[in-house]
Write a structure and sequence with these properties.
By secondary structure, the protein is mainly beta. The chain has two helices and ten strands, in the order H-H-E-E-E-E-E-E-E-E-E-E. The longest helix is centred in the N-terminal third of the chain and has 15 residues. The chain is globular, with a radius of gyration of 18 Å.
């Protein structure tokens, strides 16, 4: 009995650690072109869900974006339900299906890739906490639903353990 329980736990752990590959979305439509979607103004609404299931934050975002060739600037203004605001300006550089991103509160380069209707961006966020900051790993997955609607699910982890998820719905303005 103990052996069977151990095998079930091991299988659950291994299955839980499996990852989705960006290539799995190659045939999905509509095809996401970040330069087309993030060109102009995009509005977004999101929540932060802690690992215990509680919603710790609600927010809206206005993203004003422009591209010069393969380099894009996404100027994001967050407004949280408690009245706080935050600014993040991303610079994305496209190289084929891959992207390199930078922002002031991102440690090093953010690495992204597109396939079909999906975009995956991984980076380390320098997140304010107390009198200092903490480095959090972020794994963003975005999915284009139609020409104006994009859904995002981010997993935030520390030391390999998920500590929160962020869910965001984007809507491109006409």
């Amino acid at each position: 009995m103990k052996r069977r329980s151990l095998l079930v736990l091991l299988a659950a752990f291994l299955f839980g650690c499996s990852t989705v590959d960006i290539g799995d979305f190659r045939a999905e439509k509509p095809v996401l072109d970040l330069r087309t979607y993030f060109d102009g103004t995009v509005d977004a609404w999101g929540i932060v869900r802690n690992r215990d299931g509680t919603i710790s934050q609600r927010f809206t975002v206005v993203i004003r974006s422009t591209w010069q060739g393969d380099t894009g600037t996404l100027d994001e203004t967050f407004t949280y339900s408690d009245g706080r605001t935050q600014k993040r300006v991303w610079t994305l550089v496209k190289n084929g299906d891959r992207y390199v991103g930078r922002a002031a509160d991102v440690v090093g380069d953010a690495l992204g890739e597109t396939a079909g209707n999906a975009f995956r961006l991984r980076y380390v966020l320098d997140y304010p906490r107390g009198d200092g900051t903490v480095h959090l790993n972020v794994d963003d997955w975005m999915y284009l639903m139609d020409e104006r609607t994009l859904l995002n699910r981010s997993t935030i982890s520390k030391f390999g353990f998920e500590i929160a998820q962020v869910v965001i719905g984007f809507r491109k303005r006409d």
